[in-house]
# Entry
Amino acid sequence: MERSFEKSLCLGTGIPFVLLLCLISVPNAIVLIALYRNPLRCFRKAFSVFLVFIAAMDLYIGIVVCSGEAAMRFLCAFGDKQIPQEGDIPRILGYIGINSSILLVTAMSVDRFVSVICPHFYLREVKPRKLILCNTIIVVFSSIFASLQLTGISIDIYLLIDIHLHTTFPLVTTTLAYLGIFVALKKRSRVDLQRQSITARNSRLRNMRQLKIAQMERKFATTSFFILLFLILSLVPYFVAVIIEANCSICRGQKWLFVLKESSVIFLFLNSTVNPLLTIFRINGLKHSVKIVLRLRRQNDVNSFGSFLPPTSLANVVSN
# Structure
């Protein structure tokens, strides 16, 4: 491949990584600060653990991965380095972040499924400490799997395993989980309607509480579904390029395929820019907490949002 073409490609893909570095790091840092400070005391249950881990992993992608990719591409454009390839340290660090995010979202989908299908079991058995352990195992596993590239394993075999492990499996699992959530919520809404018609003399406070719990379950399920959707959309261009390269021997070495693959790498990180904005927009407690952290609103001017989001700060989550 011509060196001038490679330098142009490195420069053209390096600039977006600098932009991603800012667009990913700043919002996720703000979200983590809001979760840690927890000014409204509205993050006290297990679901908060997923918010913390996903935001932390996105922050890692912004600060570590995007800065590494940008540095390598600028060294390629203005120095004698080559564009990052499979097996290079920046690419391995990227695999750690992206694979961890995929599996964390998958675990969050299963968590939402269990909380909707078996609410009493979930409240009794699923504790923040257990989810912290589970999410930590996911991150460690993703780190070990990404590090396999350093052992000399065939990249084609590695990518094949990676596609099935971090695309096929999560897609099937989350599809089944959200299908189960949808059926359960639809069935529960009919049962609740029948109960309300039979027990019309129930207190208004109890009915309002049941309504808020149902709204909270739907909002959490919908929010985690949107996170999954944007994650899949960000993965599609890269895996299409990988599949074309693996199955089209004539296409290998062609400039258009090289440009497609390197450009699609950028899309892998777009999900990390969407996650903080999506969670802030969808979760009222987090939205108002962020406003308080940014001093856009005084804490005394905001009512308690404990009914909207499982309440506790990161410090409380760790201490439970």
